[in-house]
Amino acid sequence: EIVMTQSPATLSVSPGERATLSCRASQSVTVNLAWYQQTPGQAPRLLIYGASTRAPGVPDRFSGSGSGTEFSLTISSLQSEDFAVYYCQQYNNWPPWTFGQGTKVEIK
Amino acid sequence: QVQLVESGGGLVKPGGSLRLSCAASGFAFNDYYMSWVRQAPGKGLEWISFISGITTATSYADSVKGRFTISRDNAKNSLYLQMDSLRAEDTAVYYCARGRNWYDYWGQGTLVTVSS
Questions:
Q1: CB–CB of A99 and B95 under 8 A?
Q2: Residue A8, preceding bond cis, omega within 30 degrees?
């Protein structure tokens, strides 16, 4: 099973600032990685798949990069609605499809 | 628009059973893999099962294999999860989601609580 590790666990950022979240896989997942955003009480929302392809309707302030075992999600200028928990998920080696433990982006 | 609506959650005793349903609309249901993903209270996301669109091939996480059964009725645009031999650690919000590799639409979730 591929283990996904996200860092940091919590990221404190001021509105308008840039945020960079990291995700590491225990073995290569090539570019078979997705990112999700989850706000309290809501279902996850797909942001990125293929490591860098934005899902339809996702603002271009969200960008994904990386390949192999190291990935990042960057939010270029945080808006109030972006304060949430973000999960990465690999789909290269399955089953199981595995998620990271999440990074909470909170208001500084 | 795409909608996924789960139902069937509730309180059940350890060893009991529940059947979750997910009603899909707004897309060609039988063209898509469908999955169940759960989230224990205050915890992260865990994939538990998927089913293919037509051939109904299935796969399960080790944590539920032999206890849970995924199925679908394409005529009714519905996805199901039969959960037997439930344990306290199965307590979670259960989401149905469209897709196999990544999940582009999710339901609102249904809470399953396993407790005596």
A1: no
A2: yes
Residue B46 forms contact with A (CB below 8 Å):
yes
The confidence score (pLDDT) of residue B54 equals: 82
Please name which of A28, A69, A73, A25 lies closest in space to residue A49, comparing C-alpha atoms.
A73
pLDDT > 90 in chain B, percent = 97
Strand boundaries in B1-116, DSSP class E: 3-7, 10-12, 18-25, 34-39, 45-51, 58-60, 68-73, 78-83, 92-98, 105-106, 110-114
Checking if the pLDDT of B97 tops 80, the result is yes
**pLDDT (tens digit, 9 = 90+) per residue, B44-96?**
999 999 999 987 799 999 999 999 999 999 999 999 999 999 999 999 999 99
Closest CB to B47 among A49, A55, A96? A96
CB A30 within 8 A of CB A68: yes
Residue B96 and residue B33: Cα distance in Å, rounded?
A: 11
Residue A87: which of B44, B100, B104 has the nearest Cβ?
B44
